[in-house]
Amino acid sequence: MSLLNYALRRTGQTLPVALLVTVLIFLLVKLLPGDPASAILGDRASDAAVRALHRQWGMDRPLWQQYATYMRNLVTGDLGESLRFHTPVVDLLPRRATVTLFLVLYSTALSILIAVPLAVGAARHRDRWPDQLVRGVITLPLASPAFWIGILLLIVFALRLGWLPASGYGAGFVGHMRHLFLPALTLSNAFIAVLTRNLRSALIDVQETTFVDFARAKGLDPGAVLFRHVLRAALLPVVTLIGVRTSYAIGGSVVIETVFALPGLGSWMVDSIFARDYMVVQTLTLAFALGAIVINLATDLVYPLLDPRVRMG
Amino acid sequence: MGALAQEVVRPSGGRLHLHPGLVLGGTMLVLLAGAALLAPVLTPYDPNAQDFDLILQAPSLAHPFGTDNFGRDVLTRVLYGAAIDLRIGILAVLFPFVFGSLAGAAGGYSGGWVDTVVMRTVDVLTAVPFLVLVIAIVAFLGPGEVNVLLAIGGVGWVPYARLVRGEVLREKNLEYVAAARALGFRRGRILLGHILPNAIAPAVIFLASDVVLVILTAASLGFLGLGVRPPAPEWGMMIAGGREFLANGWWVAAMPGFACMYTGLAFILLGDGIADLLRVRGQ
């Protein structure tokens, strides 16, 4: 029952934030200087023509009325039209969003698969050369631009060795996995670094607790102690990181999709900026924000299921 | 800063103990800043001079980083670019550091509606992925260095506000604050003169890693074509320019990235050093 209370309370905290985010993004377009009307009509349009379009869009009405209209449109699924494709944004959104979601989840999975062995290895050989090596190497992606790492991976694995495709989304699940491997690896670099670093210190902390001594004293073999006791306890504090880092990954996907020419939301946003397709930019900003909010909420909701201490408390 | 300097050269046993990260990171940065300032002396080439006899030359003694598709010397452009990327990196954290710290301090100390306004703003800005929001702001402001600074500054103050607010909440109930209040000091003086110096350490520690984040963000904007305007030799934009020649001129895209990584490492080392020193001082 307390679990349900927790879930309701946590979700309740999220709703006002999500609502304020819509206000922020609405104001972003209204208050910043770019004018969608002159973007459509061209720079040499007459003032009268611009004013007429403003009136047609209701931009001459008070700000709060415009926001009310904006929200009504959002709720009814009217996300405006892409000027470039002459298609409702809502029709283009699902396909594009699938690519980005696939990329972000893939990169999260890769991060965990790579970071866990690195952290376990480093913690086991604490302060000896494997530990020093891991800690040194994971500093590099934190200091480098992700898109540049992507380009290096592309040069080596796609152009030189020819092992993996250099761009595109591929067909079918296996095709997606192959095509998105380099982009996902690129996107996961910073997360691998942060995850390895945090998991390593968590592992070292847990190894020194009494319940691990007890498990060892029972005569359990070291592998069982590691996987069933130490790793499980050490992974818990790291779970909350996943939500935060996924939000970073969503931001990073905007750039990485451009590097690998992926037909996702991020490359669409960049294309729309250059096409001065302001409605699409606004809608995609909101889509990214809501995606991040939902993922953060989801990790917070899953957390107590994993940690009995939170569940009871 | 005076206190920091004391720590760096703290005499003990007749020898000077220097923090290795601080020394290494500091040296790397001094070298980079020196190279950026002395670029006109260090290299015989002009960063924007095109030479169509020297297109896409591989790295050699005359051109250690090779030449790009306009025959420009890549090393020269990387050196001149250092001034741009360093300038953006440092300028873009100054406003967030000052404004964020003050906003967080004001919210934490006053509580009430001030705190509510600050923290709800923080919540909303945190909810949108940082890079997405910065790109969106630049999309509406238009590209260019000033707009990049405005966009990063407008969002980047959030972590400082959060860090300083947390510290101020803890400090404001300590005895020295009560003593200052009993002495009749004004609120502003207590907050700025007494509490803030004790609450600023986490924000200062964050500063170094934030410079790295900001430089990488500015490079990302440059890469997307939303940053500094061409032909300025900004690193991100140079990497973007090299994308078409990955097969026959990998150095055009690769070299500016190494410069970026070097800079990032220098600030990370410096930041770790500062963090260690401030922690030692705090104990």
Query: Please, how many domains of chain B?
Result: 1
Shape of chain B: elongated
Count of DSSP-assigned helices of chain A? 15
Low-confidence runs of chain B (pLDDT<50, min 5 residues)? 1-16
CATH superfamily of chain B: MetI-like
**Quaternary assembly:** heterodimer
| Secondary-structure element series of chain A | HHHHEEHHHHHHHHHHH
Largest sheet of chain A, if any? 2 strands, antiparallel
Helical amount among residues of chain A, as a percent range? Answer: over 70%
Distance between the termini of chain B: 18 Å
Average residue-wise pLDDT of chain A? 86
| Content-based structural category of chain B | mainly alpha
What pair of chains forms the biggest interface? A-B, 49 and 46 residues
Would you report the number of β strands of chain A?
2
Structural class by SSE content of chain A: mainly alpha
Unreliable parts of chain A: none
Description of the structure:
The complex is a heterodimer of chains A (313) and B (283). Chain A is mainly α. Helix content of chain A is 80%, strand content 1%. Chain A has helices at 2-31, 36-41, 47-56, 63-75, 89-124, 129-137, 139-143, 146-160, 172-179, 181-207, 210-217, 222-259, 265-274, 278-306, 308-312, and strands spanning 81-82, 87-88. A two-stranded antiparallel sheet of chain A has the order 1-2. In chain A, a hairpin with a 4-residue loop joins strand 1 (81-82) and strand 2. In chain A, helix 8 packs across helix 10, helix 8 packs across helix 12 and helix 11 crosses helix 12 (222-259). The longest helix of chain A is centred in the C-terminal third of the chain and has 38 residues, at 222-259. Chain A is globular, with a radius of gyration of 24 Å. With 283 residues, chain B is an all-alpha fold. Chain B has a single domain (27-281), classed as MetI-like fold. Helix content of chain B is 72%, strand content 1%. Chain B contains 13 helices and 2 strands. Chain B has a two-stranded antiparallel sheet with strand order 1-2. In chain B, a hairpin with a 2-residue loop joins strand 1 (11-12) and strand 2 (15-16). In chain B, helix 4 (74-110) runs parallel beside helix 13, helix 5 (112-127) runs antiparallel to helix 8 and helix 9 (175-182) packs antiparallel against helix 10 (187-199). The longest helix of chain B has 37 residues, at 74-110. The two termini of chain B are 18 Å apart. Mean pLDDT of chain B is 87; it is low at 1-16. The interface between A and B is large, with 49 and 46 residues.
